[in-house]
Specification:
The protein is an alpha/beta fold. The protein folds into two domains: 136 residues, Rossmann fold, CATH 3.40.50.1360; 65 residues, ACT domain (Alpha-Beta Plaits), CATH 3.30.70.260. 29% of the residues lie in helices and 25% in strands. The protein has seven helices and 14 strands. The strands form three sheets. It has a seven-stranded mixed β-sheet with strand order 3-2-1-4-7-13-14, with helices on both faces. The protein has a four-stranded antiparallel β-sheet with strand order 9-10-8-11. Helix 1 crosses helix 2. The longest helix is centred in the middle third of the chain and has 12 residues. It is globular, with a radius of gyration of 17 Å. The structure holds ribulose-5-phosphate. Ribulose-5-phosphate binds next to helix 2 and helix 5. Its EC number is 5.3.1.6.
Length: 217
């Protein structure tokens, strides 16, 4: 339980409007958002979910969960993060839901990121960077990560993503150019997605009970 996560999540409800289809992320902060969104369930058209975990929670509240292929673009996406820098670049994927989160963020006009103050950093990389990989490519990708970044990839053994893939967490990175690192890692064959949300970063960041901060494009 975190009061700051709950406050950020409830504050994000101000971006929800009648008849919207809301993109919904994954994690403990988003769980508070979903609980608050339940009060809107008869006023919104539904939600697009980034994970089985969030789908289950939303369905438990009677919120209709829709397929992104059927909805088209969304106006709003709300999600948490593992780290957030001053420009709204994020590390995400601590909950292994990064690929679907990335897809929904890309499909949405406004990405509202909800965090507590412990997630704020000057430079990304203290939190190990999650990378979703095709299982047969795990060791190939790991070797290339070492030579490209100098970071240490660690297999999150036992974790299988909702897409049937595996996760490598890259330790000991100092990501001073998040857009470049994201692009470089995306080039490795076998990488499904990288938990750096840099090219498509947050548009608004809400930290605990602080007022929402619009991030410069
Ligand atoms: C899941 C995520 C989460 O947003 C991130 O891990 C933050 O989680 P929490 O809100 O539980 O601190 O990226 O893949």
């Amino acid at each position: 339980m975190s009061e700051a996560k709950r406050q950020a999540a409830l504050s994000a409800l101000r971006y929800v409007e009648d008849d919207m289809i809301v993109g919904v992320g994954t994690g403990s902060t988003v769980a508070y958002f979903i609980d608050g969104l339940a009060e809107w369930k008869d006023r919104i058209k539904g939600a697009v979910s980034s994970s089985e975990q969030s789908t289950e929670r939303m369905r438990g509240h009677g919120i209709e969960v829709l397929e992104l292929n059927a909805t088209g673009g969304l106006s709003l996406y709300v999600d948490g993060a593992d780290e957030c820098d001053g420009q709204g670049h994020l590390i995400k994927g601590g909950g292994a839901a990064l690929t679907r989160e990335k897809i929904i963020a890309e499909a949405s006009d406004t990405f509202v990121c909800i965090i507590d103050a412990s997630k704020e950093v000057d430079v990304l990389g203290k939190f190990p960077l999650p990378v979703e990989v095709i299982p047969m490519a795990r060791s190939l990708v790991a070797r290339q990560i070492v030579s490209l970044t100098g970071g240490q990839p660690v297999w999150r053994e036992g974790v299988v993503t909702d897409n049937g893939n595996w996760i490598l967490d890259i330790h000991n990175l100092r990501i001073s150019d998040p857009v470049a690192v994201e692009a470089r890692l995306n080039q490795i064959p076998g990488v499904v997605s990288v938990g750096l949300f840099a090219r498509r970063k947050a548009d608004v960041v809400i930290v605990g009970d602080r007022a929402p901060r619009k991030v410069e494009a």
